[in-house]
Amino acid sequence: MDQTNLYEFITKRKSIRKYDLTPLDQDTLGSITSYMHTVKPLYDSIQVDMKLVSQNDVNNLLSINAPHYIIVSSEKKEGYLTHVGFMLQQVDLFLSSIGIGSCWLGMGKPSKSILTTSELEFVIVLALGKSKEPLHRMNISEFKRKPIEAISNVHEEDSLLSAVRLAPSATNSQPWYFIRSGDRFHAYCIKNNMVKAILYEKMNKIDMGIAICHLWLAAVHTHKNMKCIQDMQAQGTLLSGYTYLTTLQIQ
Ligand SMILES: Cc1cc2nc3c(=O)[nH]c(=O)nc-3n(C[C@H](O)[C@H](O)[C@H](O)COP(=O)(O)O)c2cc1C
User: Is residue 174 part of a domain?
Assistant: First the structure.
């Protein structure tokens, strides 16, 4: 599977919360594991570990029971949460493309025995399995999302930002704002008050990586590349209620 095929699932995917608890067959598990090893990193220098485990290896506080979970751990370096969001969203779309349901689980925690097998920091869980509900959305109108003008300075149809708009986020908060300036997209993340920050800061950074993944897939779809840069001018631009994260250059 190359990234071009993932793009079409941006407009179809949805979070699946009801699973057939029968384990997936070995072939399917094998292709998921192989795919996990091919996902593109956002930053080359951060080590990430994705483990495909079974039902009993996760203590799920929100009780979404699935036959399998992917546990993601990472080296704790600058940008690591956004990096994980970028990588795991490729897996989320891949699963959707092979007919398997999935759901990000910010509240999921791996069991102690799994945690001690990794020296990296645990970041997040993705539930997966055969869906007991319709797997795909049939129409973009089924997505509950902010309008494009609420998430960017662009007020007309823009295929790149339309893909960003459909990205999933924790509690569907859609914490992103993109300022487009030619081929540069400056990414900003919402600033939370102190109470909300405790709950959402980590998730918001993961969400930003998911949105950037959708931007990248839309760029690849139009035969362009994406480069992550720091833009001093954008960094210095004050956008009320938001913090500058990074700039994506699409060429
Ligand atoms: C980082 C992250 C954490 C999430 N955590 C949970 C969770 O703990 N429980 C849950 O039911 N859904 C969770 N979700 C799913 C979101 O609620 C869902 O993506 C959002 O409401 C948009 O819906 P959609 O994915 O169906 O388009 C999470 C999503 C993300 C991106």
Answer: yes
170 lines ligand 1 (CB under 6 A): yes
Give Rg (Cα) of the chain: 17
Does any ligand 1 atom lie closer than 6 A to the CB of residue 14? yes
Residue 138 counted as domain residue: no
Give a yes or no: residue 164 inside a domain: yes
* pLDDT tens digit at each of 251 positions of the chain: 566 699 999 999 999 999 999 999 999 999 999 999 999 999 989 999 999 999 888 876 657 999 999 999 999 999 999 999 999 999 999 999 999 999 999 988 888 888 777 789 999 999 999 999 999 999 999 999 999 999 999 998 999 999 999 999 999 999 999 999 999 999 999 999 988 888 899 999 999 999 999 999 999 999 999 999 999 999 898 899 999 999 999 99
**Ligand 1 site, residue 23, Cβ cutoff 6 A:** no
pTM of the predicted structure, to 2 decimals? 0.97
Domain that holds residue 215: 144-250
